[in-house]
Amino acid sequence: MDVSWYRWDGADLILTLHVQPRARVAGIVGLHGDALKLKVTAPAEAGRANEDVVSLLAAMCAVTRAAVTIENGTAGRRKRVRIRTPAALPDGVEPRAPG
Questions:
Q1: What is the percent of the chain with per-residue pLDDT over 70, rounded to a whole number?
Q2: Confidence of residue 1 (pLDDT cuts 50, 70, 90)
Q3: What does the radius of gyration of the chain's CA atoms come to, in whole angstroms?
Q4: Given pLDDT bands bounded at 50, 70 and 90, which one contains residue 4?
Q5: CA distance 53 to 10
Q6: How many Cα atoms occupy the beta-carbon half-sphere of 53 within 13 Å?
Q7: By the 8 A CB rule, do 68 and 59 touch?
Q8: HEC string of the chain?
């Protein structure tokens, strides 16, 4: 399966996200072009939406907040996020191949 919204970098998961702030309910809602659409309830003010992105992904992937880093896109809706050694995976992500 060829997907462009995630990739593995060693044991780290790299996600391309399209983030919708100020949603009524937070969560993954599907694809938005070549990105995974993630809704967060916080507004895009003073980094609050980014904090929600980190918290939500940390909970989904069963890692600490420190294991989730927004690598690109902190000021926009499109973001690239690294999750270090996730213990769980969001729906649609295939486990990395051994080796």
A1: 96
A2: very low
A3: 13
A4: confident
A5: 22
A6: 32
A7: no
A8: CCCCCEEEECCEEEEEEEEECCCCCCEEEEEECCEEEEECCCCCCCCHHHHHHHHHHHHHCCCCHHHEEEEECCCCCEEEEEECCCCCCCCCCCCCCCC
Closest to 26 (Cα-Cα) out of 16, 18, 38: 38
Residue type, 52: D
Of the candidates 89, 71, 78, 16, the residue with the CA atom closest to the CA atom of residue 44 = 78
CA dist 12 and 15 (Å) reads: 10
For 80, other C-beta atoms within 10 Å of its C-beta total 14
Q: Are 72 and 19 in contact (CB under 8 A)?
A: no
